[in-house]
């Protein structure tokens, strides 16, 4: 990640990244450390985190790791001590998991959110940025998705993320905490989890094609997504944490590229790049899924100076290469 997304001296600033042993959080923490932040602390309970992601961060002397759970308020208070900026990425992702385990999803994504926000208020954190999700748009049919038009939630996961947005608004108004929410659209990239029951689609496709194991596409594959390379998510988190524009805070922003592609196109592109004719197996549509997803990103461009640096195909090549190296070394 060679692009620079800040114009402040980070050497005097301290950051907390919740869920920093995970995919997006790990990339954010790495960016801050690489660019000389005074302190980057990560709290993670290692349910979705990986020791390999922490190994990347442990190379930097200004890195601190706290094994802890955001469902525990004491852990949150300790994590926020001496911190100026919070990037809250810790969550239980996955629509299917939320349908299977609604209590667990709510516990982490809503209960944990309130804990970390309250700890941020108590410790006088300067700015709080958190991950929301495009799933909050639910059954709102219009495209592209615009921040002020949302529909009915279609899954417990979507409800949990919408609840976070409502809580964030209340914390901003009641406690005066500057808060910014980021609605992620299908973030992908290196170090995304290719294993486990709720693995993301791109690493699953690459893994299946390379290993010649079954690859499944839900529904007819014509559903579209605004696939967004992880570097773009890092950019917007950094800019949101550091913005001093009063118009930019206490808002929620779409984080995407503003293009959409079908799952079938995604699969065929990966297959072609890998020089494979491995066929996918189609199965029933997934409960709670949105059919089409495309973001209007003009608000983030206007108020956060967000400008996607990596388009879909470019990010996809980097991601495929990462997983190809990973699997070819393993075999």
What is the secondary structure topology, with strand pairs?
Layout (H helix, E strand, L loop, with lengths): L13 E5 L4 H12 L4 E6 L6 H7 L5 E5 L5 H8 L4 E4 L6 H6 L1 H21 L4 E7 L22 H20 L3 E6 L2 E2 L12 H11 L4 E3 L5 E2 L2 E2 H13 L8 E5 L5 E2 H11 L7 E3 L14 H7 L7 H19 L1
Parallel strand pairs: 1-2, 1-4, 2-3, 4-5, 5-6, 6-11, 7-10, 8-13
Antiparallel strand pairs: 9-12
Helix pairs in contact: 1-2, 1-8, 3-5, 5-6, 7-9, 7-11
Describe the 3D structure.
- The chain has 331 residues and is an alpha/beta fold.
- The chain has a domain at 12-188 and 229-258 and 290-310: Rossmann fold (3-Layer(aba) Sandwich).
- 41% of the residues lie in helices and 16% in strands.
- The chain has 11 helices and 13 strands.
- The protein has helices spanning 23-34, 51-57, 73-80, 95-100, 102-122, 156-175, 201-211, 230-242, 263-273, 298-304, 312-330, and strands at residues 14-18, 39-44, 63-67, 85-88, 127-133, 179-184, 187-188, 216-218, 224-225, 228-229, 251-255, 261-262, 281-283.
- The strands form 4 sheets. The chain has a 7-stranded parallel sheet with strand order 3-2-1-4-5-6-11, sandwiched between helices. A two-stranded parallel sheet has the order 7-10. Strands 8-13 form a two-stranded parallel sheet.
- Helix 1 runs parallel beside helix 2 (51-57) and helix 1 (23-34) crosses helix 8 (230-242).
- The protein is globular.
- The two termini are 27 Å apart.
- The mean pLDDT is 94.
């Amino acid at each position: 990640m060679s692009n620079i997304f800040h114009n402040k001296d980070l050497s005097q600033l301290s950051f907390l990244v919740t869920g920093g042993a995970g995919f997006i959080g790990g990339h954010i923490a790495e960016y801050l450390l690489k660019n000389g932040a005074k302190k980057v602390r990560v709290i993670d309970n290692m349910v979705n985190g990986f020791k390999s992601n922490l190994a990347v961060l442990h190379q930097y002397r200004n890195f601190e790791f706290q094994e802890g759970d955001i469902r525990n308020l004491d852990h949150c208070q300790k994590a926020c001590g001496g911190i100026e900026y919070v990037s809250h990425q810790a969550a239980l992702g996955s629509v299917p998991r939320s349908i299977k385990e609604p209590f667990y999803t709510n516990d982490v994504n809503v209960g944990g959110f309130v804990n970390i926000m309250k700890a941020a208020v108590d410790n006088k954190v300067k700015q709080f940025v958190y991950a929301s999700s495009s799933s909050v748009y639910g059954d709102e049919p219009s495209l592209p998705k615009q921040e002020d038009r949302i529909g009915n939630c279609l899954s417990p996961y979507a409800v949990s993320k919408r609840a976070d947005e409502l809580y964030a608004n209340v914390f901003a108004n009641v406690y005066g905490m500057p808060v910014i929410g980021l609605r992620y659209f299908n973030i992908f990239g290196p170090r995304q989890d290719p294993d486990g029951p709720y693995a993301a689609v791109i690493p699953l496709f690459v893994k299946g094609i390379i290993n010649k194991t079954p690859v499944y596409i839900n529904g007819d594959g014509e559903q579209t997504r605004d696939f967004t390379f992880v570097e773009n998510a890092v950019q917007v988190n950094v800019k949101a944490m550091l913005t001093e524009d009063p118009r930019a805070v206490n808002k929620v922003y779409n984080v995407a590229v503003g293009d959409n592609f079908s799952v079938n196109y995604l699969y065929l592109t990966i297959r072609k790049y890998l020089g494979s004719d491995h066929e996918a197996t189609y199965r029933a549509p997934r409960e709670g899924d949105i059919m089409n997803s495309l973001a209007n990103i003009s608000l983030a461009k206007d108020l956060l100076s967000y400008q996607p640096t990596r388009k879909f195909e470019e990010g996809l090549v980097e991601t495929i290469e990462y997983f190809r190296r990973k699997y070819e070394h393993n075999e």
